[in-house]
Design brief:
- The protein is an alpha/beta fold.
- It has 2 domains: 210 residues, Alpha-Beta Complex (Spore Coat Polysaccharide Biosynthesis Protein SpsA, Chain A); 80 residues, no CATH class.
- The protein is 44% helix and 18% strand.
- Helix 10 runs parallel beside helix 12.
- The chain starts with 19 loop residues before the first strand and ends with a helix.
- The relative contact order is 0.12.
Length: 327
């Protein structure tokens, strides 16, 4: 498949025309970045480039990347000092030539067919600004633990935002021009800069997910998620509350007892229907996701209190389930 997307900038002399730019920031990734770049270069049936931003690495990353210096599809950007992930991401966006940006972290891998599969969503609907594929969640040894599938519809992702980030950063593709108009990644939201961007993209256009497994995500103990788990959880909750409150005349904080949280979940579901209907976006997936979130919330915690919680939540579960079945 040859994607028809036009370029937003003029490539340098001798560069291969590209529809997709794989943006890959790296800091001290000498042990993994080579495999990540090679996995991107193995993609077929699309026009693409790989933009590697070496964020001031102090190990042998530059030496590993040197082997790709003459590759016609690879562009290496070496920052003199470590500027941080958000700065490296935004530098990659500014240097990219593709209309579509596919993200890939230095310790993750792009699986065969990923770029071609995700590009189809943009070809099918010009209003799509964000896609995400399923991914393999793997140990550093390569052992695959599970294969999470992202929400498949715009409504499902917007509803899922109530509970946090549902997308793997290395599994997304988005329109570069739209993200630049939104101001790129925002440093004040690090280390949940990706979640913040998804929420802004949901307001700027349409999202579409796919069950195609296109990325292998490595659960490295040195990864940003593992090193910032508590801070990420706190900031995700804050950003999610901000997002859901913006859909409602008066948002109820996601705090307090389970009854209050379930009530807020149901109010958010209703408000989201109204919001999406007004924007002309299909509401498919909203009710089913609300039902799933309510069930997970009611069943959370120690086994001793699980039955009591489910019983307490029964009315909300029944209502959400009835709505899901009726649509």
């Amino acid at each position: 498949m040859t994607t028809p997307h036009s370029l937003t900038d003029t490539p340098p002399a001798g560069a291969i025309p590209t529809a997709i730019s794989v943006v890959l920031p790296v800091f001290n990734g000498e042990g993994c970045v080579g495999a990540a770049v090679e996995s991107a270069l193995a993609q077929k049936d699309v026009e693409f480039e790989v933009v590697v931003v070496n964020d001031g690495s102090t190990d042998g990353t530059a030496t590993v990347l040197a082997q790709f210096a003459d590759h016609p599809r690879v562009r290496l950007i070496h920052l003199a000092h470590n500027m941080g992930l958000v700065a490296a991401l935004n530098r990659g966006l500014s240097e990219a030539h593709g209309d579509l940006i596919a993200r890939l972290d230095a310790d993750d891998l792009a699986l065969p067919g990923r770029l071609a599969n995700q590009a189809q969503a943009f070809d099918a609907d010009p209003a799509v600004v964000l896609t995400a594929c399923a991914y393999e969640r793997a140990q550093p040894s390569g052992e695959v633990l599970r294969r999470p599938v992202p929400p498949l519809t715009h409504g499902a992702l917007a509803m899922a935002a109530w509970s946090g980030n549902q997308l793997c950063h290395s599994a997304v593709m988005f329109r570069r021009s739209v993200v630049l108009e939104l101001g790129g990644y925002r440093p004040e939201w690090y280390p949940v800069e990706d979640f913040d961007l998804w929420l802004r993209l949901l307001e700027a256009g349409r999202y579409r997910g796919t069950s195609f497994v296109g990325t292998r995500y490595s659960m490295s103990p040195q990864g940003i998620t593992q090193q910032n788990e508590q801070r990420q959880l706190s900031m995700v909750r804050s950003r999610a509350a901000e997002f859901t409150a913006s859909l409602m005349v008066s948002g109820t904080p996601r705090t307090g007892g389970m009854r209050q949280r379930l009530r807020h979940l149901d109010e958010t579901r209703i408000a989201l229907h109204t919001h999406l209907d007004a924007a002309g976006i299909p509401t498919e997936g909203v009710d089913a996701m609300a039902y799933r979130l309510a069930f997970e919330l009611a069943g959370a915690g120690r086994p001793a209190v699980r039955q009591l919680r489910v019983a307490t939540a029964a009315p909300a579960l029944w209502r959400a389930g009835r709505q899901a079945r009726s649509r």
